[in-house]
């Protein structure tokens, strides 16, 4: 076994024994890039229970050390909040105040006077505060995490080790981590972080989603990368999923070529079509009016998925109809004359809402989430539909509405009746639950369109949690079983007989090779993050419809997801030319 | 001892962003200010410069709180704090 010598953080030398070493993971966002790495620091270790003051340290000295550390953490967080954006900024401002909070610091000093080490004192003091907030429930309970985050930072400061969270650097770097949580991604500065590599996580993890949204090359599930030393130079290929330590001239050439081709790829002319002229409208997934304006500028032919959670998240009460109307109208106004598909509130599982979902469910992915919150909190959905209808009045956008997490034709029928009562003319549903894919024909008797949410469809078809690294290989929409469910959905639409459109709005649509397969399976429209529009358009334009159908057959009959992906990619030489 | 009551105007109550704004304003004052729910004993009043204390107070929209302070300028200081609490800070 090879020994890995860990160099000190910040040093820029590459360990000789690591040169030429390669790592293989799952490529989740294309791009070829060379840079120096910075590791996400280890989580802060808990000080020993009962750890007391070291001999020769007086309680006064220890208290001063604690005050200094708390102040330093506050200063650091305040400084970082200035550079942060949106919700990330508010989180940082609030945690900065907590770091040097008089109640917290006084409680810790009391413990120091009783003989505890400053590390143990702040650990216990923060734990009591967090427990108190947790017991208050709702919004306060969520803030308990912030108190524990601050505690970790103060202990790291006292120990003189790097603060937990994304490292801070003046120069751009490749971030290496075990996995990234949503809270980490809020403070991720795309001007500093040029690529993401994680040892854990799957293709649908938060790391993968944020990487695609920011257009950063990324590889997940690359086992062993966290053993590399800070400052190591590596080459990352976000399409192939490979990493090479201390790259040579070949990789420099590949990275330079990527820079050129990605610049060329930057433009999408606004009409998605195959080589033979078959039209495939390319739409964008957006989460608010800012996104919508960006998507329109990138040439999106409409919005295939408007996530309405932005109106609701981080709130402890339901937003009023007037507030919702204003938020939705901002999106509609960005797409005059174009289609905007609004997805009703999708709370629950990884998107809990204190006033709507029950955080104590033992199995939230199979719990009351999406459309199902209408069973337990009736009224919220109807008010949202009223707001969407009001926002649609007087705009030129063609507003369609769909419900997430529909399992049966009965649910689709009920949703369609709610839409009709609200005055919304084009109801649809998402196909994320395998039962809905299997009964698409019955579902389409009640609604005008369906949209496949491939992330959840994959996790439910494969019974594999999206966030779990060890299940990454199961959790890919290239799984032939998932492709069969998509084919059955398209067949269902044919059987129903009115040519009702089947779209895809999951991450699968953003993978240019998979996009070809989806079109070959009969999917009518693709909706994706605006960043992916140009690469998907370029690859679609290189094939004819019969070719796409041939590739879809190849993928459906493959023995594994890996085989399906490889067989299809082999037939699409343009991917290699463009570095996708 | 100066004393003022204030009715919480923020729709989300006295936490999140409104609490942060209030605590920052208290922190700028040269005197110590306490806060309690109306009707609570003086001994249970909490340090108004602590965001964690303010959050654990759990004051909702429409609740009445009591602010207390001593020393030079206490009256003016409390008046300015009442004004902050009686504005819907979440709407701005």
UniProtKB/TrEMBL annotation, chain B:
<dbReference type="GO" id="GO:0005737">
    <property type="term" value="C:cytoplasm"/>
</dbReference>
<dbReference type="InterPro" id="IPR000032">
    <property type="entry name" value="HPr-like"/>
</dbReference>
<dbReference type="GO" id="GO:0009401">
    <property type="term" value="P:phosphoenolpyruvate-dependent sugar phosphotransferase system"/>
</dbReference>
<dbReference type="InterPro" id="IPR050399">
    <property type="entry name" value="HPr"/>
</dbReference>
<dbReference type="InterPro" id="IPR035895">
    <property type="entry name" value="HPr-like_sf"/>
</dbReference>
<protein>
    <submittedName>
        <fullName>HPr family phosphocarrier protein</fullName>
    </submittedName>
</protein>
<keyword id="KW-0598">Phosphotransferase system</keyword>
<feature type="domain" description="HPr">
    <location>
        <begin position="1"/>
        <end position="92"/>
    </location>
</feature>
<dbReference type="Pfam" id="PF00381">
    <property type="entry name" value="PTS-HPr"/>
</dbReference>
<keyword id="KW-0963">Cytoplasm</keyword>
